[in-house]
């Protein structure tokens, strides 16, 4: 059985929520903002690598809803 993960990452202004069970691995997050969304880094979401507006824009392009903003 696959483990479902829900993680939150914040920069103090916005919080990105990632829900692994919804992810379809389209790669849109990486294609749109690789500085923040980089699966070869730990953690794979690094909120300090871009401004909030750029992060919100990239998250809005997630087709599955695995990434959202709080």
Explain what the structure shows:
This protein is α+β, with helices and mostly antiparallel strands and 70 residues long. The chain has one domain: Alpha-Beta Plaits. It is built from two helices and three strands. The chain has helices at 28-32, 52-59; strands spanning 6-10, 15-19, 67-69. It has a three-stranded antiparallel sheet with strand order 1-2-3, covered by helices on one side. The longest helix has 8 residues, at 52-59. The N and C termini lie far apart (28 Å).
Q: What share of the residues lie within helices?
A: 10-25%
Distance between the termini: 28 Å
**What composes the largest sheet?**
3 strands, antiparallel
Beta-strand segment tally: 3
CATH architecture: 2-Layer Sandwich
SSE order: EEHHE
Radius of gyration of CA atoms, rounded to a whole number: 11 Å
Broad shape? globular
What is the number of domains? Answer: 1
What is the element layout, followed by pairings?
Blueprint: E1 6-10, E2 15-19, H1 28-32, H2 52-59, E3 67-69
Antiparallel strand pairs: 1-2, 2-3
Briefly summarize what is shown.
The chain is an alpha+beta fold and 70 residues long.
